[in-house]
Amino acid sequence: MQLLSVNVGRPLPNPWKGLAATGIDKRPVDGPVAVSAPGPKGTGAVGLAGDRVYDVKHHGGPDQALYAYAREDLDYWEPELGRELPNGVFGENLTTAGLDVNGALIGERWRIGADVVLEVSCPRIPCGTFQGWLERDGWIRRFTRDARPGAYLRVVEPGEIRAGDPVSVVQRPAHDVSVALVFRALTLEPDLLPRLSVADALPAEDRALIARRTA
């Protein structure tokens, strides 16, 4: 398992949400990049040096410090979208190889390189910016149907990462609640919501939402 690229965003106008900017246009960078736990949600801070988010209500903060997507899943989507998909094009900070990102368990921990440990927190939920960026009508529905959302990550141990670093799973919780399962439960399959209660590492706002929907 390997980190193929570390991707940092550059601000672009965001007509799809009516915001001043978006950081979805992420490009691979050379050399080491510092990873640290960001401040609270609402500041725009994320866990990767040189990057930030602009939709501060819905993105950023400690539970969404970094976003990982598998190269294998980008390859899966290339025929669907009819074009090559370079690393970072889905807005991911980390493009991985050989790692089952969607099958990762909530609370699972990954070591990347020598120093950094990250914890899987929740799936990405697609939004209008994502659809507009890819210029594909109906993309949110299509992306949701396949349940390949990629994973948001918390920073447990800071440090530096770079393309080519090995990735290893160093801790897995006892439950079976995966990134894909949470995504399915929160989108098209609400009957799965009761199964999520054992995943204590889900963000507090997700746990509150699940409690409301299953009350």
Summarize the structure.
The chain is 21% helix and 27% strand. By secondary structure, the protein is of the alpha+beta class. The mean pLDDT is 96.
Class by SSE composition = alpha+beta
Termini, distance in Å? 40 Å
- Widest β-sheet, arrangement of strands: 4-1-7-6-10-9-8-12
Overall geometry comes to globular
What is the count of β-strands?
Answer: 12
Mean pLDDT: 96
Range of helix content: 10-25%
The proportion of strand residues reads 25-35%
Radius of gyration, taken over Cα atoms and rounded to an integer in Å: 16 Å
Order of helices and strands: EEEEEEHEEEHHEEEHH
Uncertain regions spanning at least 5 consecutive residues: none
**SS element count, helices:** 5
Largest sheet entry: 8 strands, mixed
